[in-house]
Fold these 4 entries.
Entry 1:
Amino acid sequence: MARGFLHLLLAIAAVASPASAASASGAAGVVIDPRFFIAGGTCAAISHGITTPIDVVKTRMQSNPEKYKSLLPATALIIKEEGAQALTKGLVPTLVGYGIEGALKFGIYEVSKPMAVLAFQKLNHKLNRSGGTGPLPFLLASIMAGAVASLVLVPMESTRIRMVTDASFEGIGLLRGLGKLVEEAGLVQTLTVGLGAMLAKQVPYTFGKQVSFDVVAKFLYGILNNPSQSTANLAETISKSVSPEFIKWTVSVLSAMIASVMACFMSQPGDVILTETYKGGEGDATKKRGLAEVSSTIFARNSDDGVALALSGFFTGLQARFVHVGMIITSQLVIYDLVKQLLGLPATGSH
């Protein structure tokens, strides 16, 4: 199966060549390379799919913290009460939603990045500023990618969370789950409810993940390719004793691990808000709650014990999510770099 998948990627690479990407670009001369979208969708579906059990436990901890208090006891309790199959709830909407989301997020980010860099360079020229553009173009590209991906994720994530937290969604599939949401709240609300919460999670998540990955990878390749006097001997030793493929693999893994830490902490409050927005079983499944109202609900739970404890509610399930997000992002970005190279694109940060 793995060999067949590799052959499929190589076949796609032949079709999605730079020449065909250039011919598909708009009149403005912006190259929309489909290989970024293919690599993004592949890595997102795989990485989110394999970590579904951890996501189930994390979601339960956020939606019912009195019952599910910590990672391992919560996992044991779910298996005891519902069986091991309960840890795969929401797998299909996860694969579909994050596959599409990953394709859009990575593809739009990679396409928008050179456009943003060019815009900032022109702005610097008009303002007679010297020096580079810094990380601002990356930030702008990540905001655009995260916002577009959020529109796709809203109905999928809503369905997944209801499948995990609402008994009335027990045993139903993705299409029936989406249909049930439409019956409860209508089509427009199903497609848009919680969009503010999704943006609160996805924009900092995208920035923390992809910008950190880009910046750290470029920094590491910079040390190896353009070493200073203090690191020249180390860089020379590494280049002589280690293969280029192993260097690319190591840079990808280290950059992905750092990006996972950044993305987890930056998007944790948004993740808690998202779960609170979509969870069912409290008689408000059809009630549209805004970002401010949901945030106030979370804050009020521990407000009698002081501001610090009230704010800590936005970091409920952090332990489970740190494991979950760490596994997702590290595997996702390494797979992304691997698929990119299989499709004929350079490794992140190497050019």
Note: The chain has 15 helices and no strands.
Entry 2:
Amino acid sequence: MIRHTESTMAGGITWFWNERFWLPSNVTWADLRSSDGAVYPQLEDFGVILPISLILLIIRLIFERLIASPIARFLGVPAVNGRPAEDNLILEKAFQSVSRFPDDKRLQGLAKQLDWSVRRVERWFRRRRNAERPSRLKKFSECCWRFVFYMAAWSYGMYTVPYESWFWDTNSYWYNFPFHSLTTPIYNYYVIEASFYLSLMLSIFTDVRRKDFIANLVHHISTLSLLGFSWVCNFTRIGCLVLIIHDASDIFLETAKMANYAKVHILAHINFSIFALTFFVSRVVIFPVWVIHSSAVISLKVIGPFPSYYLFNGLLIVLYSLHLYWFYTIAYMVFIIVTQGMVEKDARSDVEETTDSSDETESLNGSSKTGNSTNHINTRSRAAANHH
């Protein structure tokens, strides 16, 4: 029985990594084994990704606690959401065991039981819900970590990748494919980026919950799949270009969000404007013109089609569809800001979380009444941080 199971698993692995699917005709996995003369990507190289991603998670926890949080406190970012709810055993029991969002009938019953006004009971529940939401300090710390990584990764990529002999000629991405020897900078770049995106996917279930949770999850899965497939099949040249394009705009988004949490709204607007422009140029224009055109059109002319060609380009199209979705939300925000000068209930605010808009207004002490135009940057416009 055990021997049969092992045989079945081995057969499944062999079927999945069938070289007729993943590689061009007349190329085998044996041809891509590294030698003294050339180093090619190997599947086992990705064995270091999970340990590094776990190390990144530990580094992130230390960074957020010892560096990002003190910076946030220095900038006046609050660690709590508005005023705390007053102690009340009856309301706490109703909150914990009955409903966090009681209906009118229950509100009236609780008000009568406590000899409170209905409005006071509503306020208590709102403040109690706010107490369980992630604070602006926590969100600032998350953004600070992503900003540091995106800045470091993008800087490293720009320092190394454009100096590769093939970078500026997209035809060179496919000449003599897949026999492209791997350099140490490209190896390091791929491994650290893949590890970071895996750490993001591992932490997405514990991070601040966003309205675009599903889109972000799809983005992380698509990105990791692209990184993995492009590594195994040695699409690393086009993969490096994808990574550089993605990291560029995220730097400005995370800066804008940190400025917003610190209520430095001018800086938030400036960085968000730069982010919107960078996102449009890099992900809406350059990505299809340079990346997809090279991968789908030029590669077809140079090496011809093979099965994984369709898979790889399909994933690129999924990624581009997410870019268009996010750019729509960005363009909508920019339109509202330009035409109205402020955002009612702020489309960028805690629409990014699974809470009602009245909680946000309460937690910010009625900021909409004071004409405060930016309470939070909406992570629906986040690109694949996100990428994420």
Note: Residues 265-302 form the longest helix (38 residues).
Entry 3:
Amino acid sequence: MWKKVIITVAVLVVLQHILTVLYIMGFHKRIYQHYPGPCRIIPEIDSGSENIALLSNGLALISSGCNPVHMGFVLDDEILNHQGNIFLFDFNHPEKNAIKLKFTGKDFDYARFSAHGIDVYEDKKTGAVSVFVVNHRRDHEVIEVFQFDHKSLTLHHKKSVIDPIMRSVNDVAAVSSDAFYFTNDGYSTSFLTRNLETFLMLAKGNVVYYDGKKMRKVADKGFGDNGIAVSPDNEFIYVAQPTGMIINVYERNRDATLRLVQVIDLGTAPDNIFVEPGTGDLWLGCNPVLHRLMDNFKNKTLTAPSQVLHVKWEDPTRVTHGYTLSEVFLDTGDFLSTSTIAAYHQSTKGLLIGTVVTKLAYCQVNAF
């Protein structure tokens, strides 16, 4: 009798897990397309616009050419051969297209550049702009640090940050010209073990803090910790978990450790997080149907839906309290496939929507 009970319970547990995975993959979802206003594709970019960082003058830096092979995906040959680049888009002149930035630095190997997460830090005293970019080099996970020269449209390489704790780096959030947080979205990097890790939903993700000299974990046991961002006052850290369909809100302690204070349930898979400078509101690039994202990785001609959500805090001075969640943009994938980030420029009401491995879109936000 007990043997039958144990077998029945085991079967039910396995069945529940399989149904949970199917739910997360979004097999049950239908897409009802809507835009916040007129939208257009920015023509220069066709190898992804995975993440976007906004400067105070309205210039946006866009990471392109991500090759996520380390995450266990089966990838199209075109994606495997993506060349990493950083593009510039000016919200003040949205009719213009993106410009590819130049690189300088004897220790920077452009041929091995696979750009993923990106963030910027502006020194209010000197005006210097530090740029931090996740680079999936073949030999190491790296965060590259650059100085941005607006006049020459050049990124001057300062250093490459490498450490054994950097297992599968996804995104970076700068808190000074030297210090930053970053996420590891998993532990395993081989195809078999990473897929087992993902299917079994093992909590192997984490958040790491780098003070300019040393690294240490400040949040552990995350389910695929992905996009990361910091609040305008540097008091809170936001972390996206796609498989959990949530945003974790952490309060920063004086020693830079993190304390979880709120969980925002989305019902969809968030990728990257953009924090609106003036309000602290969150703009989220999401993938509502994850199984189609996997298909897009295998074959770039197969599209996947794109989605943008907006989290508006009821009281911007107390972000751990109430909020309103709205859907800003939803597309079947025919116009824009596999959205990852949505960067909003308040004064022009412009919205840039990035993707993992395909295009970049600009929308005028009239209403949502």
Note: Residues 2-25 form the longest helix (24 residues).
Entry 4:
Amino acid sequence: MTITTCLESCNEMGFTYAALGKGTQCFCSDVKGNSSLLRYMDSAHCDIPCVGDKKYNCGGDKYLSLYRTRVADTRCSHMELKSEGSLPLIALASFPRSGNTWSRQLIERATGLYTGSYYWEHERKQAFGSKAFPGGNVDYKLKQTICVKSHLSLTDHIKEFEGGAVILIRNPYSAIVAEVFRRHMFEKQQSAEEAMEYFKSKEWEAFAKAQSEKWKNMAMQWLTYAPRVLAIHYEDIQARTYEELTKIVKFLNVEVDPQRIMCATHEYPSSQSTGISLGNHGSKTRVYLTYDPFSTSLREHINGYIKTVNESLAAHHQKLLQDYNSVKLF
């Protein structure tokens, strides 16, 4: 028995999940509601090699390795693009690396409506974007999508969105470091080790100061100029996906369907709930810093911006940011 043979068997029988245990067992299941099968644990518990391929582990003595099959979950598989002019322009605004793409996936599954993008002309040329987000292939000004991705903070741009904005706000320390890895590993095609060298360079501190100011401006501008706003903290949607997604659906004026929202959280679970290895045969998929790259003076600089954003959040009756001291895991 191997991971592949178990997955294929469950696919052929029409099940949405395959679970492997004790190195030899294969179970197929359709997960509905708040199933204990999706109470993710540390992948280290799955420590028994697969009988048919000992390079990979197939569960543990009391734990199952869980994999998603190719079978559609009908609770939230249907999504559509509305007719032109039928929806208000509502932004899904964030500083880069703050969960915008993941949130779009969740919102589409939870509402049954495609999301759009300010960057639609670029997205429709990308292999991933054009397939993953059909709503990102059309001009967002046609008002056919439930919300629109944006990383911009210009006042005139914000005022386009008469329906307001959902603002995704992440710990700035984590967001800035994640942006470094994106630029170096994906744009420059460097290794994780090469990317980490940047934090020791002369350019790092100036980059962090500039990016933290952009982070602050992003939050302040949308809070100030959007006609209505919902601030969602990235750390909250990671920890309590169902609850935070429900808030977003209500803000978007879509009827709450608990099964659709539950399905969305199953289709796109948070990295906090799944750890680093779900669905990737135990391979490490995230990069971790082994030291704090933020100097005391840089931390004081960023904390000043956090204080400023918190004052604006309070003025707009939104949840305040935590007292972040530095970057955590990402």
Note: Strands lie at 17-21, 25-29, 49-50, 53-57, 65-68, 91-94, 116-117, 148-150, 165-169, 229-233.
